[in-house]
Target: Enoyl-[acyl-carrier protein] reductase II
Amino acid sequence: MAPLSTTDLPAIPAAQGNTPASQAAAAAEAAAPAAPPSTPPANDAARARLERLMARGAAFLGSRVAIMGGAMSWISERNLVAALSNAGAFGVIACGAMEPPRLAEEIAATQALTDKPFGVNLITMHPRLDALVQVCLDAKVGHIVFAGGIPPTPAIRKAKEGGAKVVCFAPALALAKKLVRSGADALVIEGSEAGGHIGPVSLNVLAQEILPAMAAEVPVFVAGGIGRGEALLSYLEMGAAGAQIGTRFVCATESIAHPKFKQAFIRGAARDALPTVQLDERFPVIPVRALQNEGTKRFLEHQAGVIRRHQSGELDKVAAQLDIEHYWAGALRRAVIDGDVENGSLMAGQSVGMVTKEAPAAEILAELMDQAAAALAARA
Ligand SMILES: Cc1cc2nc3c(=O)[nH]c(=O)nc-3n(C[C@H](O)[C@H](O)[C@H](O)COP(=O)(O)O)c2cc1C
Model:
């Protein structure tokens, strides 16, 4: 379906706002005190109930609040990670393509900024995965998050035997069960609403498929599209132990993302954060959700050009696939660090529309918790 614009929406008939009932409602509204703030205050009972809903996840993480900062390459480094952990959440370093000595340095620098627990996210296809696990163990990192594919069982075993808790991404129920059998201590289920590399299924559906089956066995953290506390609350009530949130923390004051990258988030709307388009099924493209820019437009032209060169015999299939894959090499760094928001990759989740300003991590976290507690209080 083509995207709707406001001009596509049906007009409301004038009479609809002019009935006796609506006039009475308008009069009542005029007489009522000023509109409440967007997040009404929550009472102590609601906060206590929210804490109970998060107790298992918080105990697993060793944090006050069961919210993991989603590891974001180039962004989730010492400053944001420490800020989240100091604020009561659970920061996670994104190792990305770092080599072991560089990861060791980043962990030590984070430990210098916080005495609270934090985790490290390792990409399973990293050629030095084993050495990276060892770096985490040597530094006494309590939680290792394996991302970007199903982790090899020896890596899980090594992490656990070294004393770390293991968190794995489960993209489907069958894999969730397999990962727990392989030793995963907790799971993240990440829906396609998320920023960065995504699977095909929304969190809405993953939560319904996986939480009833797995939540009793291990803590399950939900990720993707969580921008407000009310959504967080609803997943906790479905059995989630907590959430992993990325997009909402990009514009934390402590985040080192370039001001232009943050500005793109503050301006961005949910409908601007789209998955990469694949032109030809012979040349698969890993879907990445990102804000659209010149780079995403040119990627389509790039694919078309490569496919033409393949069809004319200039490029064989492997070379053509590599050419397409290389297009985005280094693109996230260009946007996050250099501020090239036109050509770099603006990985962002659909909750980007709920990022409206730069604010300290503690404030963003408090806002999410206030919204969740206020939603609970409103029911009472
Ligand atoms: C800019 C950006 C970079 C990301 N990089 C990584 C990464 O390096 N490793 C990873 O496992 N997930 C990565 N993610 C996903 C986050 O860890 C997290 O799961 C996701 O942001 C949650 O969805 P949300 O963005 O809707 O909150 C990234 C997300 C964003 C927005």
Remarks:
- Residues 103 and 287 are 27 Å apart (CA to CA).
- The first strand starts at residue 67 and ends at 69.
